[in-house]
Specification:
The structure is a single chain. It is elongated, with a radius of gyration of 18 Å. Helix content is 9%, strand content 47%. By secondary structure, the protein is mainly beta. It contains one helix and seven strands; from the N terminus they run ββββαβββ. Strands 2-1-5-6-7-4-3 form a seven-stranded antiparallel beta sheet, with helices on one face. A hairpin with a 5-residue loop joins β5 and β6. It has one domain: Factor Xa Inhibitor (Irregular). The mean pLDDT is 90.
């Protein structure tokens, strides 16, 4: 299995149409994905002293962090609008091998920064709301 390029790990936002068309958020230099879940412990006297967990139970969530250079793209404007309004939007994470994850996310944090003689950059933190689904290649 070959290593996958980080430059092919893309964050995309839907345009709001039906069916949705996803546009790449330009200028991202780093993107990070975290999947977390709570566990439901079902250990009992019959567990033989070992912890047992209930499969499929608990709350799962996906967090996405990204940082990049502000380019003034349409996708960046959509993210800023969603952040200011506090509304959910549809996002897609795509990987070099063609795998994709789609779901609704809320902009938890959006930061802008820039040096006097440098470019303006930003960081965003997205938190999932509802199911984040894997999309088959070619879908």
């Amino acid at each position: 299995m070959a290593a996958q390029k980080g430059s092919a790990f893309l964050l995309k936002i839907a345009n709001g149409a039906s069916p949705a068309v996803y546009q790449t958020v330009a200028g991202l230099r780093t993107t990070q994905l975290s999947v977390t879940g709570d566990t439901v412990v079902i250990t009992n006297k019959g567990s033989g002293g070992w912890r047992e967990l209930l499969s499929g139970a608990g709350v799962r969530s996906v967090s996405v962090s990204a940082a990049g250079i502000f380019l003034g793209s349409t996708a960046e404007a959509q993210i800023r609008a969603a952040a200011l309004a506090g509304t959910l939007a549809d996002y897609e994470l795509s990987f070099e091998d063609g795998d994709k994850l789609r779901g609704q996310f809320l902009v938890q944090r959006l930061d802008y920064a820039g040096d006097f003689n440098g470019e303006r950059n930003y960081t965003i933190q997205l938190e999932s709301s509802g199911q984040v689904a894997a999309v088959q290649v070619g879908a």
